Amino acid sequence: MNAPERLENLQPFGDDYGPLLTGAFAPVFDEMTLTDLPLVKGAIPADLNGVYMRTGPNPRYAPQGRYHPFDGDGMVHAAMFDKGRLTVRNRWVRTDAFKEEEQAGTARFFGIRETLKGRSDKRLKDTGNTDMVGHGGKALALWYMSGDAWEIDPVTLDTLGRSQAIRQSGGAISAHAKVDEVTGEMMFFDYGNDAPYMHYGVVGADGRLLHHVPIALPGPRLPHDMAITEHYSILHDLPLFHDHEAMKLGRHKIEFHPEMKTRLGVIARMGAGDSIRWFDFSPCFLYHVVNAWEEGDWVVMVGCRYMPALKADGSIDAQRTARDVAELVQHARLWRWRMNLATGEAQEQALDLQHNVEFPTCNAALTGRRTRFGYLCDQREDVILQWPGIRKYDLDTGEMLSAWSDDREHSWYSEPWFAAADDAQSEDHGYLVAYQWNAALKRQTLDVFDARDLRVGPIAQVALPRHVPTGFHGCWIGAARIAHWDAR
Ligand SMILES: [Fe+2]
C-alpha cells in the first residue's frame, strides 16, 4: 500500500474565494495511486470489473479573480475494480491550458465570472472538467462549453491527447456526447455564438469521424445534453440563453424566455442537418437526460426538467429562473417527453413531482434502447451541488423503487454509475458505484450498492484517506470496453 498521509487541508486557498473552494469543494494537489484500501463494511464483489471514472473542477493554481465551479482544471478520480481488488487513482486532465499554466507556475486564465478580463485568444479555459465518456477503448474528458475531447487512458489516467476525430470535424464537442454500445458509435454536438450555432456529429467505433452537419438554431443557445435512440439523435433548443447585448460586451448574463418553447429536435443518426424535425414543449431549462428510445412511431426521452420559478400568481418568474440557473440552484423533476414521427404530435408528462432529482444515469449498455430503470441523485436546493442520497426509478411509471441516504444533512454523493455484473441476468443486475463525502465526519468513502435494491445501503464501503472534491459527471467502463485491460 502507498500509505497515504491523511490530508485534512480543506481550505487550500483560504477563504478569499468563497465557499466554492472549501469544504466539499476543496481541491486536492497530489496525484495518488491507492491500493489495499481498508473496507468499512462488506466486500468488493468479484463480478464487478471495470473502471468508474468521474471528472470535476480541481484548480491547480489559485484563481485570478472570482471563482466558479465551472472554471477549475479537470481532475479525474477513478476506481478500478478487478476481481475483488480496488485501485483508486486521481490525475489532472493535462489539457494545453493546464500545461501552459503549469509551465508558468500560476493561473493564466480568468473564469466565467471574470469574462471581461479574459484573454483575447482563449476567453475561457478548456478544462475537461465536466463529463467522462467511454469510447473506442478509451475515456474522453469533455467540457460543457464545447472544446476538445481529451483522451484518457482509463487504467493509468494518463492524458493521451486530443481526439483527432473532433479536430477533424473542424468544430468542437460539448459535454454529454452519447455512445451507442451496440454499434460502438459516439454521437456528439457542439454549440457556439456564431451561426449556425450548433453542429451534430458521429464518431465510429474505430475513432474515425463518420458524420458532421450544421444544425441551424434561431440564435446562440445554451444546450447542455442530448439523447440518442437506436436510429435517431435528439438535440435541444432551450429558452434559456445569454443576453445577446451583454454577450457582445463579453459578459455572461443568462435570460429565461417563458414566451418561447422548449424545442427538441429529432434527426436520423446520419441525417442531414436540415432534416431535423423540431417538436415544441412547455418552456424549461434542461440539464440532463436519463435515456431515450423508440416505441413504434414515438421517440421517447426521459430527463430532469428544470422547474421554472413561479410568481405568487402562478406565472413563470423569468428573472428568478435565470438567476437560479446561473447560481446553480437546483430544482428538477423527473419528466417524460414523447414525439410522434408519423403525426408530429408532442406529449410531455411529469413522472414524479415530489422529488428534486438530477444527475441521472442508467445501464449505459442500453443507452438509446428502452430502459426500465434510472438512477438519480437527490439534490438540495439550499446547498449547491450537494447530492445527499440516491434513488432508483421505474422510468415507465415514475415509481420510486428504492432509495438510500445515511445522512441527508452532510452526505455528498458523486454521480452514481450503474456497473453491470459480469454475468448479468437482468437490466439492473449489477452495482451502483459512487464516492461519498460526509462533511460532518470528514470521512470519504467509495460506496458500492446492489442496484436491484438500494434500501440495504452499500454492500461494500471502502475508506479513502482523503476527500474527493465535489465534481460533475462520471462514467462506468466495463473491463470488456477497455482497450488494454488484459495487458495491464
Ligand atoms: Fe452536465
Descriptive account of the structure:
The chain has 488 residues and is mainly beta. It is built from four helices and 33 strands. Strands 2, 28, 29, 30, 31 and 32 form a six-stranded antiparallel β-sheet that branches. It has a five-stranded antiparallel β-sheet with strand order 1-5-4-3-33, with no helix packed on it. Strands 6-7-8-9 form a four-stranded antiparallel β-sheet. The longest helix has 9 residues. 50% of the residues are buried. Bound molecules: fe (ii) ion. The site of fe (ii) ion has 7 residues, from strand 20.
Secondary structure class reads mainly beta
The helix content, as a percent range, equals under 10%
**Rounded radius of gyration (Å):** 21 Å
Bound ligands, named by name, code or SMILES: fe (ii) ion
H/I helix tally: 4
Distance between the termini: 18 Å
What is the arithmetic mean of pLDDT?
A: 94
Strand content: 35-45%
**Major sheet:** 6 strands, antiparallel
Tell me the number of strands: 33
Shape: globular
Task: List unreliable stretches of 5+ residues.
Answer: 1-8
Fold topology:
Blueprint (H helix, E strand, L loop, with lengths): L32 E2 L4 E4 L7 E8 L16 E9 L2 E8 L3 H9 L26 E5 L2 E5 L7 E3 L6 E4 L1 H6 L8 E2 L6 E6 L5 E7 L5 E8 L10 E2 L3 E6 L2 E3 L1 H5 L5 E3 L5 E7 L8 E5 L3 E11 L2 E9 L11 H9 L5 E9 L5 E7 L4 E5 L11 E6 L11 E5 L5 E5 L6 E3 L3 E4 L9 E9 L4 E8 L9 E5 L9 E5 L10
Antiparallel strand pairs: 1-5, 2-32, 3-4, 3-33, 4-5, 6-7, 7-8, 8-9, 10-11, 11-12, 12-13, 14-15, 15-18, 16-17, 18-19, 20-21, 21-22, 22-23, 24-25, 25-26, 26-27, 28-30, 29-30, 30-31, 31-32
The structure holds fe (ii) ion.
The site of fe (ii) ion has 7 residues, from strand 20.
